[in-house]
Amino acid sequence: MVTLFDNYEQQYSVLTADITAQIGSLAASNTKDRRQLISNIEKHVEEAQELLEQMDLEVREIEAPKRTRCRTKLDCYRAELKRLTLEYIKARSIKQGSLGYDSTDPDDIYDARISNNQKQRLLDNTERLERSGKKLEEGYKILVETEQTGSQILQNLGEQRETIQKSRNRLRETDEELSRASRILNAMVMRSLQQKFILFIVGACMFIALCIGIYLGFKN
Fold first, then answer.
1. I need a labelling partner for 151 at 20 to 30 A (CA). Which of 19, 27, 66, 95 fits?
2. Helix (H), strand (E) at residue 101
3. Based on C-alpha coordinates, what's the Rg of the chain?
4. Pair 57, 136: CB distance under 8 Å
5. Are 41 and 22 in contact (CB under 8 A)?
6. What is the spatial distance between Cα 204 and Cα 199, in angstroms, rounded to a whole number?
7. Beta carbons within 10 angstroms of residue 146's beta carbon
8. What is the pLDDT of residues 160-194, one digit of tens each?
């Protein structure tokens, strides 16, 4: 299955191949072609930098077994883009040095004047990409640590909830046992009262019968 990271890789490979070919053509180009090549190279470098940023975000969503391999690839791509950027700056410098500032072509003079600014801008973009990658990596580490802490807290809460539930169940069972014991005790008390009442009736009957017997004995 082709992932989004794989698609970014394919786009990046096409861009870097174009950048490499255009850098090779830069030294032999005339002024008009050279300006177009410069514009294309800088545009492709910026697109490649954006792709690397997207790949850096995407690699965080990849499963752990593949993440390390993709991270290594991404580091290689960053180094490759930085190398291409330096090669481009060198190619421009060689061409401008051969022309010199005394060239009578206004386009060449204009290119020479803005060369340093463009070089610095490309270097700044490359450094910015590296800094962004480091910041994103640090942010990702913090996110992972926070996620682990949250998972641990949720696990602890789950264990505490389970303990509370078990305690509640034990209390319910204890309450049921106490209710059962109370019913048994009440039944025993009622049975004892019944037995005492029966003994009282029997004793009363025996006493009455004895009295009647004594009375009849005296009468006879």
1. 66
2. none
3. 47
4. yes
5. yes
6. 8
7. 10
8. 888 888 888 888 888 888 888 888 988 898 988 88
